[in-house]
């Protein structure tokens, strides 16, 4: 006979789980008791939200399913932001929550919350386990659902008595699972692929618009091969950054609200848009009617619901990006250049580069460029949300997929620091940097306790402007500089780090930047750098909300 | 914009209705009516959902429904020949001498059953397509409808064809 708790731990290990991020509590005591002598590693975070983000960071950095665990009620509710973050960015995590015993369900018992109800709109699927006999099957299904098709979070809610009840161990795990309502499409439709290849071969001004789907399907190599053979420039979304090396001649960087001018110009003038693993988000398209107005659109995505959701598509192809790109490459009978189009793009690139004021003041773009030079595209860069995120997206030179983790869809401040802990456990040999703002860092600053406790060697670069910078930027530009509740007092982050036993320093001038970053990289343990940057530096260029993407402010005169 | 009829096969499990209803409300889709019950296969239920939507919206509705793990099959049967029925119970004022016999005549014309006779009211049970029930309701309004219950539409394909899971 085996208890539910034992089946859970064994089930996780059968799925290849090596590490979980969690926080104990009343109804998960039987599970924690099982973990006490298990080889399954558990990292005790300081807030359940961090457990969810760490599982997410682990999943994005490794391509495997991340796992977090929390108790019922408040513990489960604290996971919600992390689960929603993973849902919006299609990240495979399995969230385990304790629940009050089945006989108390629905009674408003102590620490009871209807977490399956609460998370219904932010999970790919969720389960309330009513009988221990179902648990083995549910674990198997949950991991299968999380990692296949369009990946996403799955939650399993475990009442305490389900964990303590024992069942016949020979029946604990089914050999196979069948989900008759879940059959994701992997292979693209052959006719559609042929049609797409024909269009691509005949287009004069094609452009690839690549997103997070390229990263999650591990299709980066195929994407670059395809683009090179056909001579097609590539622009990426925030989520797609790192799918093509930043210094690749065909790379146009990010498009959209804070994208490069040349990416947005190229989209606007293109005659064929090849959208891969993207969802035509409003931060990308601006005014959607004027997005790629002259282009025939091919849309490749694993989720059929994304096709035609925001923009009408001419050639939809549903399936896994990697398998479809491979099929398309196989059909190319010749490689070809598009000199005139690429020449036009080179002209834009030369005339409209990203730029910032180089006047000796400590500016965030300079710091990110220095870090990029020092790490040479190695390492894993994680960001918080806001200006820090956009500057990193614009100025860090990404060279390898899964080296850039950021909360794109939900835009969760406080994501970066715990996600970088997860990234470290996924790839312990890599240097992991969290690029933070002073606002974002304070949203999960308690995780200094976790990194100190386990000596997790993540480095935090705080771009400290004593503002909620992105909101302040909008107030400056669109609200007549009325800085309503966006100014933050000065915090001595190095001192806070020191109190937790974490090394840190403050940097106030450009010449201290490289030595500080080097010190952080060379330190074995965690490290916090408090960069006191120009307070009112803005992220430019910028497409105002609702404008066409070629109408940018803060760019070069055309 | 028009009314679309979706026939949806779902797992017969707790919480499925709430997943479907939640999806409609959070994506801003308008449910005109929803009828759900067991079907020929005991592990499944069949829902008939009437949605008011344009072509792009109804495509999204179907795609989003298909994404739910517990949804097995979604079919838009709006433009297919179907038998569709709903049932209504109508409690109408019908005092002896002031309209009772007229109400009974109307019931007869509509083949509605009188299933309860009170001192001042009659309860009519009627089945039919939406148009028929609308018409009866409109006629009875002039006598004073005290209570009205409609089940929502159920619909079935005519002929040998069925809406079935091909999996």
Written description of the protein model:
- The complex is a heterodimer of chains A (558) and B (167).
- With 558 residues, chain A is of the alpha/beta class.
- Chain A has 3 domains: 2-171, Rossmann fold (3-Layer(aba) Sandwich); 190-351, Rossmann fold, CATH 3.40.50.1220; 364-532, Thiamin diphosphate (ThDP)-binding fold, Pyr/PP domains (Rossmann fold).
- Chain A has a 6-stranded parallel beta sheet with strand order 3-2-4-5-7-6, sandwiched between helices.
- In chain A, helix 17 (387-395) links the parallel strand 15 and strand 16 (404-405).
- The longest helix of chain A has 16 residues, at 132-147.
- Chain B folds into 2 domains: 2-76, Alpha-Beta Plaits; 83-154, ACT-like. Chain A, domain 2 (Alpha-Beta Plaits), CATH 3.30.70.
- Helix content of chain B is 28%, strand content 42%.
- Chain B has 4 helices and 9 strands; from the N terminus they run βαββαββαββαββ.
- In chain B, strands 5, 6, 7, 8 and 9 form a 5-stranded antiparallel beta sheet that branches.
- Chain B is of the alpha+beta class and 167 residues long.
- The relative contact order of chain B is 0.20.
- The radius of gyration of chain B is 19 Å and the shape is elongated.
- Chain B has helices at residues 16-26, 55-67, 100-109, 130-141; strands spanning 2-11, 30-38, 44-53, 71-76, 82-93, 113-117, 121-128, 145-150, 154-157.
- At the A-B interface, loops of A face helix 1 and helix 2 of B.
